[in-house]
Amino acid sequence: MVETTQPSALAKCDRCAVQLRVAESRREDSRPFRKAAVPKGLCPDCVMTEFLYNTYPVNMIIDERGPEMLLNAESMRMALLSSGVMDPAHCEMDVNEINWRRVVDNWNLPVKLSKSGRNPYRMGDAKKRLPHAAEMFPDEDTARKECVAELLTMLHPDDPVSADEIDIPDDFGPIHRKRKPQ
Ligand SMILES: [Zn+2]
User: Fold this and answer.
1) Closest alpha carbon to 64 in 132, 143, 134
2) Exposed, middle or buried by CB within 10 Å (0-12, 13-18, 19+), for 50?
3) What pLDDT, on the 0 to 100 scale, is given for residue 158?
4) Any long-range contacts for 124-131 (C-beta under 8 Å, 24+ apart)?
């Protein structure tokens, strides 16, 4: 933990203008999200939005199905934790800080797009060429499994996971990948 230079200073989110305060301290090694040291930056909701816009193929999936799919906060929480993206071991931003309703309501505000060559997709490319999620996936579990499987595959491209391999328990316990038959 390192003290920030202007603790408690008031700030506004650069994207949605919600009022924020600079934290008292932060972890310098926190990734992929880190608290700001100065009164400048994004709120947790906009940080998550920017991440989703710039992360392939999650961005394509959201674009095809509509950002409302994010309102299943529990499955988003599980996907972010089970994929390791927001593992508290290395990320100081708590997945429970994210207000998914705000993420969706502010979805169309401008987002900084990273120029990384690893993201071939730009929001809007889908142009609604696929039917809405509700028609494609009458079974919500299928959509959740696909979302988790695609996130896991994105993080470990050498070990692709299919939705059939994902087990989602009814009691919101941890998501498991089924063991492959030997
Ligand atoms: Zn914001």
Assistant:
1) 132
2) middle
3) 81
4) 124/63, 125/60, 125/63, 126/60, 126/63, 126/64, 129/64, 130/64, 130/65
Q: How far does residue 81's CA lie from ligand 1's centre (Å)? A: 22
Strand pairing partners for 20? 11
pLDDT of residue 133: 47
- In tens, the pLDDT along 26-44 reads 899 999 888 888 888 999 9
Q: How far is the CA of 173 from the centre of ligand 1 (A)?
A: 30
- Rounded to the nearest angstrom, the distance between the alpha carbon of 63 and the centre of ligand 1 is 20
Assess whether the previous peptide bond of 157 is cis (omega < 30° from 0). Answer: no
Separation of 15 CA from ligand 1 center, angstroms?
5
Q: What is the pLDDT of residues 124-173, one digit of tens each?
A: 877 645 555 445 555 667 777 888 888 888 777 888 888 888 876 665 56
Packed helices 44-53 and 58-65: angle between N→C axes, nearest 10 degrees: 100
Gap from CA of 16 to ligand 1 centroid (Å): 4
Residue type, 101: R
- Residue 42 CA to ligand 1 centre (angstroms): 5
Residue 70, pLDDT above cutoff 90: yes
